[in-house]
Automatic annotation (TrEMBL):
Organism of this sequence: Saccharothrix variisporea
Taxonomic lineage: Bacteria, Bacillati, Actinomycetota, Actinomycetes, Pseudonocardiales
Protein name: Putative hydrophobic protein (TIGR00271 family)
UniProt cross-references to PANTHER family, sorted A to Z: AT15442P-RELATED (PTHR20992:SF9)
Record-annotated membrane-spanning stretches: 116-135, 141-160, 172-193, 213-234, 241-262, 274-296
Keywords of the record: Membrane, Transmembrane, Transmembrane helix
UniProt superkingdom: Bacteria
Amino acid sequence: MLHMRAVCPVDHTDQVLAVLKEHPGVTHVVLLRGAAIDPAGDVVEADVAREATDEVVGALCAMGIDRAGGVTLEQIDTALSDAADRAEEAAPGEGADAVVWEELISRTGEESRLNVTFQAFLSIACLLAAVGVVTNSPVTIVGAMVVGPEFGPLAALAVGTVLRRWDLVRRAAAALAIGFPVAMVITFGAAVVGSYTGLFDRDMVLAAHQVDFVFQVGPFSLIVALLAGAAGMLSMTSAKSAALVGVFISVTTVPAAGYAAIAAVLGEWAICGYSVLQLAVNLVGIVVAAALVLALRNRRGRTRAVGRPLSNG
């Protein structure tokens, strides 16, 4: 279940209460009159079955509560309540299959921002991948996959494309188009220093056959990317968020970027080119599969989700 809190103008409170009390998927309705200070108004709280959340939030947004006040959602890990059990049983569908569109847009919008934290994680991941290439360590390569934050913008591209949220598409595209080149330049610089100080040499890298899979582009590169994109979007649109870790360690986006930087330092332009191609294949495959999965999900509430711009905060 999700815990919902709505800050609403006093003249909308009765309408909000009516929506919540009439919906079978809502329980534990609480009213705090005059509790909201900025913006001023009443606070209404309730626990909502996940499969009913999109419908309830849509009704509140149709009243303009999101503009005049605000609606927030929080995941409930444990609910010991017969009333909550009845609400989940009464709500149509299964909670794991329900898509909360506003939650999805908010989450992908936040994770697609190009900021210092995103760039730092992506650069560190590329550096880890470069170390894995130099030391012939698949384990380090896997570590780089987990650290890489690139799935956020990739998921945002899919969500923005399906819902026609071009502001989200622009933000995600900028994060990827700037983030990866910057990370690769940083990795290139570190590799130059490492090469000149004798940390590694050409023969050492070319003998590292255990990590050759990073730049070896083939049909399975696309297949794995498609499967990872599908699994990732299913994870983000359901309650199965733990599956995202498997997505991170199944694609060679960050490792390919790191290998391209190392190959460029060594003058191995063929390997560098294949690594960049591997990166492109994985990026495109993930976005295409994620968008297809999202398009096939229940699209309730799409009209409401299309119009609201993302916060710049």
